[in-house]
Amino acid sequence: MGSISEQKILVELRNVDKEFMKQGLPEKVLSGINFDVKEGEFVSILGKSGCGKSTLLNLIGGFDQPTRGELHFDGMPVTKPTRRAIMLFQFYALLPWRSVLKNVEIALEPEGLSKEESRERAMKYIKLVGLEDSLHQFPSQLSGGMQQRVAIARALSIQPELILMDEPFAALDTFTRYYLQDELLRIKEQEGTNIILVTHDIDEAVYLSDRVFIMDANPGTIRKRIPIQLPKPRDRSHSDFQYYRKWILDEFNFGQKLDGLEFNI
Amino acid sequence: MGSISEQKILVELRNVDKEFMKQGLPEKVLSGINFDVKEGEFVSILGKSGCGKSTLLNLIGGFDQPTRGELHFDGMPVTKPTRRAIMLFQFYALLPWRSVLKNVEIALEPEGLSKEESRERAMKYIKLVGLEDSLHQFPSQLSGGMQQRVAIARALSIQPELILMDEPFAALDTFTRYYLQDELLRIKEQEGTNIILVTHDIDEAVYLSDRVFIMDANPGTIRKRIPIQLPKPRDRSHSDFQYYRKWILDEFNFGQKLDGLEFNI
Amino acid sequence: MKYLSIFMYATVSFLLVISAWQLVIFFGDYPEALLPSPFMVFQGIISLIQDGTLFEHVRVSLFRFFVGYLSAVVVAIALGLILGRTTRVWKVIDPIVQVLRPVAPVAWAPFIVLWFGIGNMPAIVIIFIAAFFPVLLSTVSAVKKIDKTYLKLAQNLEIGKSSLLLKIIFPAAFPYIANGLHIAVGTAWIFLVAGEMIGAQSGLGYLIVDSRNALDLDLVLAGIFFIGILGLLLDKSIGLFEKWVGKQWGVQGS
Amino acid sequence: MKYLSIFMYATVSFLLVISAWQLVIFFGDYPEALLPSPFMVFQGIISLIQDGTLFEHVRVSLFRFFVGYLSAVVVAIALGLILGRTTRVWKVIDPIVQVLRPVAPVAWAPFIVLWFGIGNMPAIVIIFIAAFFPVLLSTVSAVKKIDKTYLKLAQNLEIGKSSLLLKIIFPAAFPYIANGLHIAVGTAWIFLVAGEMIGAQSGLGYLIVDSRNALDLDLVLAGIFFIGILGLLLDKSIGLFEKWVGKQWGVQGS
Amino acid sequence: GRPTPGENDVIRIGHLPITHAAPLYFTKEYEEELLNGAEIELVRFSSWIELMDALNAGRIDGASVLFELAMKAKERGIGISAVALGHREGNAIVASHDVDEVADLKGETVAIPHTLSAHNLLLDEMLQREGMAYEDVNVVEMPPPEMPAALSEGRISSYIVAEPFGALGVTLEAGHVLYQSNEFCPDSCLCCALVLRDDFMEEAPELADQFVEAYLEAGVRADQQTEESLAAHSNYLNVTDEALELSLGWITYEDLSIGEEEYEHLRQRLIEMQLSDQPPTYEEFIDQSYFEEER
Ligand SMILES: Nc1ncnc2c1ncn2[C@@H]1O[C@H](COP(=O)(O)OP(=O)(O)OP(=O)(O)O)[C@@H](O)[C@H]1O
Ligand SMILES: Nc1ncnc2c1ncn2[C@@H]1O[C@H](COP(=O)(O)OP(=O)(O)OP(=O)(O)O)[C@@H](O)[C@H]1O
Ligand SMILES: [Mg+2]
Ligand SMILES: [Mg+2]
């Protein structure tokens, strides 16, 4: 923790509110969101379906603007999406009409590289995610896990400072999910990219993050920030792991009794 | 365990093989499946995506016939789907053009009940799953968790001997999933229905089942049968729970090293 | 608010068309009889409204259209539901349909006159033909495309044949059938003009053809204008109908 | 195997049609001039083939069709891609399109002759009109319906405007555009007969009209037969084209 | 085909909206006076094809139709007879302003409404007179209403068609009259005929008699260029008075009998031009009994 707090602040939210119009009336989806993400940190945002996680991530990525409050990325106000902060979508957002290689190459187009440089860079990151044998396959010919790896390679090839992930592994089965989580940690170590991850999977949040932000719904607020002080790599069945797991579970059960979960599902 | 082994055998599979034609050639999807499910038992079948879980469940439900081997339900060969064994689908299979009440009522149509009797029976099971306030809502107006509860009410209203569940909670978020798992146990207790559940979620299998069958892929076989000897209700963060969890995880990690998981994802 | 903005945009486009038209006349220097000005067409429209013939033409055309279209829809959906479920019969019928479909209904005119005479019937029959094929094909393919889960569910619940057809297959296929209905309204309406060329003595198609024979191109354009407007209204109404059914059946938005 | 079975079913349906037809003649007792027998039509087909006119008619019709259809497709897709992205302009254009679309291309005949003369052009223009609207509308709605994720992705990657249009929007919209192309082939081909009625001296539509003029109903039916068969082939070819593009773009089955 | 004769005393007669069908209009206009009790229903068609379909199928009892087209139908075995002419003369050859003589048409496009028409025969006749072959011009069939526009835009150089389209072309200043039909074949350019279905005449001979008599009388009235007659014309034909008067000046309706000689000439022409193999003979096709009764 000590070393992180001295590092520079990458993302900064101050009293961020977001309202959407619903049947002509403004509805508050996010209310008074305040947090910082420091360089090098892996932060997870954990919350139930519909609590505003994706909305929050969209704001950070510049895809949408807050109704009130301030939002800075690397000290500058966020006004539109940039290549410095790349979003990784839940359903991968691969272009189904382009092969694996071309899906990565299109991301490099705006850099004005030569054909060889671009090919070389794409190949490097495709190798990094272990897909060098599927270069010319189309996304539909790949399993879900492989597709998400292509998306990761594409995001990394841009060499962004921040990757925003919106439930990136939710559509995969448990075993694939476990495997990709390990991969993600390995790649993050190697590339040093910052990651903000949105999820509703407690295990995933505990396994991956330096800090977990727990969100409440209606309107979306950050209820709790839990630093996960475990060494990496973590052991999912270790008792320390279970300690955090239970803590977070209790946080939600606590919320459940107050709100009456039965009517929210 | 003792009491279960004396009970009558409900489902019986003997050397069941299933082949599908793929580009003109037969491909073995299931090979030599052998198991019994006894009355009162809650059995989970756990395996990776594509290992043949759904195919197996379809055979048991009579939606498809085995290529070789024998399959009995309550002592009789299974030839077609019946109301005695109801399938619960992953995406609920609610009829989107019918309200909650009518979705349940259509299941009672073949019983030739009077309008009142049918309404009464439907109401009973809708209440059982706690949806009496949403009687006249359409599925699209309900959350995923509520939709699956309607499907459960519909299945129960038929009062079948067996319910087959194909990843019933996979599309729900973790919190809703936990909640519905508890509900399922409560209802099973109350109605005494037998359940065979297919899943790729280790926690789910351990939390719910009396026995877990672990499947391997290519071709699908049952590698291991693990009896979960824990009292119900179970505590997800208890160390005994973690013991089974780790056991199963290791089973899969073991498999992973042999098959080279990297190429299967 | 929303209707106001639609109205405003429509006004802009209307003005745009009128000015483009006037410009063509201005620069093209065509004789008035060959390319009437917007003002002449406006006068034509007014005169049609004043002497009441317009109302009569519209009434007759709409009558023919609805008789032809609705009967085509009923027959095509009923047939389509059955043919969609009987694969072998459909395989025999399909080639016939595929060869008949691309033939313009007008080409059948001699036979339509032979069997159905002149007057209302040819127009009704031609609209029937024009609407029949799109609805039939979309119904059959809708039935074939139904999510297999619904069929498995019905099997599992042991639901009877007629219940299956009416309570499961038809509503499940409906969104796609509705798409066919929508397309068919457009095609069928387009063939109104053709249908009313065969011995009809009234209707918008007759108005156009007859005015053309009399070289009253202002009335031709007036007829085109009303065909266009009514076609638009028909299209919108079927859209509203779809939405209404959707609401009854709990489908929101989509 | 698969083709053999298709062929068998087609044969059965062919025999079915012929027998039904012969039965109608048998029981209806119509003069041959009003309802020719299958055999007469067969003779008509043979004579058309033997004297080579059939080949010429088919060639001319296909030429007109392709010129009209392809130019409509190119213009409509290009326009549609742009209009689909410029919401305000589309709101002005939309009412015009909506009113023009339901008007039968034939109704424009006087103006088509005025601007495009006679011969090949009226047929080409009518086919153009018939194909233009379905393709334009399906392109615009395809562009509007594109999965928003693709647009977000493009924003995020800071992809340039032209790359966005050509490398993302067009391929993403293609499956739906292809659907419009498919519908348009059908509608456009149907209007071939109408188009070849205006001053054309050859083509399948002319063959039908001319034979009808000469009361040769056997040749009318022969013409209908070839229009049907060619329409079917066109439809299948565009289906194959769609599949081919799909394969290039990695879409399997769908 | 099974005829559907009009209910009771309704006679259904098909026609196109052209000046050539004027006797029909006058029959209708003076229906009460001429038909004592019977009723005539004029069914207007938009083209010859549709009219022939209805006539052949027995959906109308008779029609005022191109003579040559009716002969073709008879040849095909349709039970119809020609009982009177529609008119005499009134087929102008309209040419664009830069065509001064027939020779200027060489290689140019000429429009006719139908190959089986007097207009086609007229074209051939004209070309022969000038020592040209039919193939020297490019003949196209097109819908008459499109002809003035096509001429005006230079898409065609000349057209020959039923009235009022010739007169319309002239009044629109799209072209001028090159020749009138009577300059080529005085009294033998049979153009339109009134044909009746045989089954109609058999089933209701008195009605048919009555109708044809009325028709002939109507022809006489249509021929009078009085205010009243002009008004009657414009009740049925929606054209400018100018075009109508010009058009009526070119036509006569007085003698509508079909002479054997002129019919034979027409027959021969059809055979010469290979438009018909075995056109019906005078005896087979022409029913002049009405005229004989009168005389
Ligand atoms: N563009 C929008 N317009 C109106 N309401 C919106 C919009 N986007 C989201 N919302 C609403 O805001 C709330 C939060 O949505 P959001 O998608 O951020 O939730 P989430 O936490 O990502 O849920 P999930 O886990 O299901 O993805 C929901 O009630 C949703 O209906
Ligand atoms: N009808 C079919 N025809 C051909 N192959 C099939 C068919 N159904 C399933 N398969 C194949 O059988 C294998 C097992 O499929 P199955 O759906 O049973 O897997 P699963 O374990 O349920 O996977 P998931 O967890 O993704 O649902 C797969 O390789 C699949 O491609
Ligand atoms: Mg979300
Ligand atoms: Mg499955």
TrEMBL record, chains A, B:
InterPro entries found in the cross-reference section: AAA+_ATPase (IPR003593), ABC_transporter-like_ATP-bd (IPR003439), ABC_transporter-like_CS (IPR017871), ABC_transporter_ATP-bind (IPR050166), P-loop_NTPase (IPR027417)
Protein name, per record: ABC transporter
PANTHER family: ALIPHATIC SULFONATES IMPORT ATP-BINDING PROTEIN SSUB (PTHR42788:SF13), TAURINE IMPORT ATP-BINDING PROTEIN-RELATED (PTHR42788)
Pfam families, A to Z: ABC_tran
ABC transporter domain span: 11-242
Gene Ontology MF annotations: ATP binding; ATP hydrolysis activity
Gene3D superfamilies attached to this UniProt entry: P-loop containing nucleotide triphosphate hydrolases
Entry keywords, A to Z: ATP-binding, Nucleotide-binding, Translocase, Transport
SMART domains: AAA
Automatic annotation (TrEMBL), chains C, D:
Name listed for the protein in its UniProt record: Sulfonate ABC transporter permease
Family per similarity comment: Belongs to the binding-protein-dependent transport system permease family.
Pfam families per UniProt: BPD_transp_1 (PF00528)
Keyword list, A-Z: Cell membrane, Membrane, Transmembrane, Transmembrane helix, Transport
GO cellular component: plasma membrane
GO terms of biological process kind: alkanesulfonate transmembrane transport
Keyword Transport: yes
Topology of this chain in the membrane: Multi-pass membrane protein
Membrane-spanning residues: 6-26, 62-84, 96-118, 124-143, 164-194, 214-234
Intracellular or extracellular location(s): Cell membrane
Domain ABC transmembrane type-1: 58-238
